[in-house]
UniProtKB/TrEMBL annotation, chain A:
Disulfide bond among keywords: no
Stated name of the protein: Dipeptide/oligopeptide/nickel ABC transporter ATP-binding protein
Keyword Oxidoreductase: no
Top-level taxon of the source organism: Bacteria
Cell location: Cell membrane
Keywords: ATP-binding, Cell membrane, Membrane, Nucleotide-binding, Transport
InterPro entries referenced in this protein's UniProt entry, alphabetically: AAA+_ATPase, ABC_Ni/Peptide_Import, ABC_transporter-like_ATP-bd, ABC_transporter-like_CS, Oligopep_ABC_C, P-loop_NTPase
One GO MF term attached to the UniProt entry: ATP binding
Membrane topology: Peripheral membrane protein
Database matches in PANTHER family: DIPEPTIDE TRANSPORT ATP-BINDING PROTEIN DPPD, OLIGOPEPTIDE TRANSPORT ATP-BINDING PROTEIN APPD
UniProtKB/TrEMBL annotation, chain B:
Record's subcellular location: Cell membrane
Top-rank lineage group of the source organism: Bacteria
Protein name: ABC transporter permease
Entry's transmembrane regions: 12-31, 98-121, 133-160, 172-191, 270-291
Gene3D superfamilies membership: MetI-like
Organism of origin: Arthrobacter mangrovi
Signal peptide feature range: none
TrEMBL record, chain C:
Stretches that traverse the bilayer: 53-75, 123-146, 232-253, 286-311
Protein name (record): ABC transporter permease
Family: Belongs to the binding-protein-dependent transport system permease family.
Xref: SUPFAM superfamilies: MetI-like
UniProt subcellular location: Cell membrane
Chain segments carrying region Disordered: 1-24
Amino acid sequence: MSTVTAAETTTTDRSLPVVLKVEGLNVDLRTPRGTVRAVDNVGFEARAGQTLALLGESGCGKSMTAKAVAGLLDPIADVDGGEILLNGTDLARLSPKQRRKFAGPELGIVFQDALTALNPVYPVGAQLGEAFRIHHGLSAKEAKAKAVDLMRRVGIPEPEARVNAYPHQFSGGMRQRILIAMAVALNPKLLIADEPTTALDVTVQAQIMALLKSLREESDMAVVLITHDLAVVAEEADTVAVMYAGNVVETGRVADVFASPRHPYTKGLLESVPVNAERGAELNSIPGSPPELHKIPAGCVYQDRCPLVQEVCRAERPKLLPVVSKEPAAADGATPRAAACHFSEELDK
Amino acid sequence: MLTYLRKRILSSALPLVVVIVGVFALARLTGNPATLYLPLNATEQMRADFTARMGLDQPLLVQMADYFGGVLRLDFGESLRTGESAAAMALRAFPATLQLAATTMVLAIILAVIVGCWAALKPNGVADRISSFVSMAAASIPDFWLAIVGIWIFAITLGWLPTSGVNGSEAWVLPIATLLLRPFGVLVQIVRGAMVSALSEPYIKLARSKGAGDVRIVTHHALRNAAAPALTVAGDLTVGLVNGAVVVETIFGWPGIGKLMIDSILQRDFAVLQAAVLLTAVAIFVLNILIDLGYALLDARVRPATVKA
Amino acid sequence: MATPLVQPGHQPPTSDALPEPFAVPPLEPPAAEAAEAGDKKPGLFRLLLRDKFATAAAAVLVLVGLTAVFGPALMGDLATKQNLLFANKPPFNPANGWEYFLGSDSLGRSVLARLVIATRTTVAVALPAVAIALVIGSLWGVWAGYHRGWRETVSMRVADVIMSFPSLLLAVVVLYVFNPSIANIVLILALTRIPIYLRTARAESAELQSRTFVDAARTFGAKPNAIIGRHVVPIVLPTLLTLATLEFCYVMLAESSLSFLGIGIQPPDVSWGLMVSQGRQYLQTAWWLSIFPGLAIVITTIAANMLAAWLRIATDPAQRWRLALPRKRLIARIPAKTVEGDK
């Protein structure tokens, strides 16, 4: 695991203010088979100036969690209990109208696919300036000037000339920059980035991640990064919450979690990364596939694929409990670590 | 942009040419057009005179050249009924139909956009169900029957509105209401469908993430994207409005091109029918060009419209 | 833990990523359901009975069909029998006997009986017209879409030409030149509606011909017509049949309009549209002569419309799940589980 531990990490400082605190969040999804729980009792914290990664396979509920936080759930999904505290205000209890006041100035979101997320029939300048028009009541002309500033800020060349161009006239990377610019337009305290680089080339991915990082440092935002990419987590995030089948199975500092995973799922993920495998040896993988949402078992969500499975796993769902580690970095108690496994102690090397 | 328009004009002109040739071909299909042009009780002598006068004894190619020359000079011969120039009669009737059709379409579009957006905001909600039933009923009621029911209730029973004519604003109510119904019903369904799909696009989520409210989402973000399919259908409906206009003008005695056509058919006045049909075809040609221009204005990408029939 | 992570074909180039193909698809219930619709899909008929509006619509259409087939025989010569003693009787008066339940015209003919006879004429025009347009338009469209290239271009141009011309105008000119016989009306209505099927079938078929299973059939050496018949037509058919249901309304309304204008069905034949037209001059004295046949048209078209709307959803695997979707809960579930054990 040399590459992972060598990755750059900053110390998670408990003194940094918590911007977003999600607790006990449930999201229900109405399907023909009845209502299923897509996000189950999820909790995590994001601190100012730091990046929290929500890591998981597609369908694990990470994107749904992000949408619930941003208030952008599809009509078939409903938040059913839980708190979404953004600087102390519970977003889950706000009316849609009150919530709109937060969208932009307090909370920004970067979507995955910039081509579909940008409105094809308007020039990008109009779309960039929209937040200023809605929240600050600027005129179209003033908003356009702000749009030019934003484009410059995210590194789009010749912003004055391109402010009137349409989304389809930009490259994929530039479109993603525009999306990011839109999300940070009003200097929000919290930025949610929902797989912001998945649709991009590898080289462009690195540029976009660098841009996100510099913007985060510039304005001390908390960033929640939704991703399925372990490498991105290792490089960009300070803390990580690993999700599986709608549940958070492990949280903690990225360095700690990656160095000594305390949930068999996290462990399985890390072992399946080819970089970590011995050359020539067969690549490890997790057998089976995640359960479908209407077939999530009563006990531990991971029981059907877990090598450590016991009777207790089938009977009782493990809670996300703080884990004590023998390792010195975590032993000082400064970093909250938790795992939802009956046998997390046994995984401690 | 210009090449796009040129291409569209050329492809729109094709139907026009087909119609012009088609009318010529149809007129010759029955053998001697004299039977077509002349009243049924015409004598042999009249037919022979007519054939000679119209050059129908000439070879077909010469006839065709004559015909095209006539079309270009707007000369379709004289009306059998009045002896007047057929083209002049058609041109005189045209504005009445245009006024009726334009007013109807503008009203239909405005009403359909309002109702369609309202329904689309909450798919399967109460508003959606009501509007879907109303629009379905509106598209299902035959216009001629509605006109008759309207006359029966509002003109005969209640006496509020005149049964026919063009004098005064009351005279417009029933014809427009009758003509409006079908385009309105179809457009509501199209606007609603296009709005529902536009509202589920990711860019709507993005707009919401900027704090945009429902009104702004609908008017600024979804409507313009939903406009392209609605425009296509509105164009088709305007073409179809000619059908309705024929019926409505006949019932309400509206002196438009539709009434002219039916009158000329019933009195077997082929020259006038031909002029009216060709004039309508030209009007539709112009309309198609205008719709193409509308697309270009709506969307910088000038995407081809994808609409299910 | 020794099995390969993902199939080679699915392995992303940068293998640090999680196995994306191993996904639960909960975010897209339509896709999830479509995949499973195969195992235990409820029959179309059972699904129909669940929707009371669609059931009612289907019942109305069946009734119209039965009336068209058996009605005239039951009515005998009632529709043509003149009885001046019973002229202009208003409807809903049981004293006049059942045959005058919907009133009578100025010659004392039963409106009910005439309505039944007219049903047969109306259906006899609309059904063949729809069927002819459906068969020709669909096959033509599938063929054009499958082969692409010039065959597609020419076909679409032809469709554009027909569509850009008001159908009534075409009918008016043709029926002026030729006799307005039932056969001619059927043919002209079919002709004007062919482009509708042509366009739809072409679009679907063009989309399908690039799919892998069509490619697979091609590599096995299947001939184009065999592929069209076996792979393309069955998939396109539900859409086209739905369209045909909708078109039934249109064609019926078009025939009614023509008959109303006096260039459609000619007396002594009678159709609903013609009855409305004939009753028009008696509007002040005998409203029922126009109103009842009009109602028959309205009810039939609304029924066909509703059935088409339902069919569109029911025959579309990606939308079928909507019919079985539970309604939104009104009462929020009480949060049952306590939060993680850090308290």
